[in-house]
Amino acid sequence: MSRTDLIADNFTIIRNAIMAKKENVDVPASKTTKDILEILKKQGYIDNFKLIEDKKQGALRIYLKYISGKSAIANIKRISRPGLRIYVKKDKVPLVLRGKGMAIISTPRGILTDKEARSQNLGGEVMAYIW
């Protein structure tokens, strides 16, 4: 199976694990995925993650977070995809659910949340919405 969009595949793996009430899930490792997971951990959407070494690309084990039996991630959605990239300027950075959600944006200074991008006056590629 060829993978054209690793981020979307990882989001699907996370969504399926949440629906199955899994404690943890493994996704293929990449630098972009690691940066996104750092943001999710910092914002309180996941408990933790760690790199599992193997002879190939490696895997990231994600420890999902549940609050009173409900997942901290209600929805995770890929916005920009290989067939249709979505870019925004610094004054058009999206506000997800009036600030209750979070957008992940790839900027020239790295992958940031929508709030961080607004505070640093940066635009970029809108990668995902999470709430």
Describe the overall structure.
This protein has 3 helices and 10 strands. Strands 6, 7, 8, 9 and 10 form a 5-stranded antiparallel sheet that branches. Strands 1-3-2 form a 3-stranded antiparallel sheet, covered by helices on one side. Strand 2 and strand 3 form a beta hairpin. The N and C termini lie far apart (30 Å). The protein has helices at 6-19, 31-42, 114-119; strands spanning 24-28, 46-52, 59-64, 66-67, 70-71, 76-78, 87-88, 102-107, 110-113, 124-130. With 131 residues, the chain is an alpha+beta fold. Helices cover 24% and strands 34% of the residues.
Mean pLDDT: 95
Q: Determine Rg (CA atoms, Å).
A: 15 Å
Major sheet attributes: 5 strands, antiparallel
Question: Element order, helices and strands?
Answer: HEHEEEEEEEEHE
- Helix content, binned percent: 10-25%
Proportion of strand residues? 25-35%
How many helices does DSSP assign?
3
Q: What's a quick, concise take on this entry?
A:
The protein has 131 residues and is of the alpha+beta class. The chain has helices at residues 6-19, 31-42, 114-119, and strands at 24-28, 46-52, 59-64, 66-67, 70-71, 76-78, 87-88, 102-107, 110-113, 124-130.
Q: What keyword list fits this structure?
A:
131 residues; alpha+beta; 5-stranded antiparallel sheet; 3-stranded antiparallel sheet; 3 helices
Secondary structure blueprint with pairings:
Layout (H helix, E strand, L loop, with lengths): L5 H14 L4 E5 L2 H12 L3 E7 L6 E6 L1 E2 L2 E2 L4 E3 L8 E2 L13 E6 L2 E4 H6 L4 E7 L1
Antiparallel strand pairs: 1-3, 2-3, 4-5, 6-10, 7-10, 8-9, 8-10
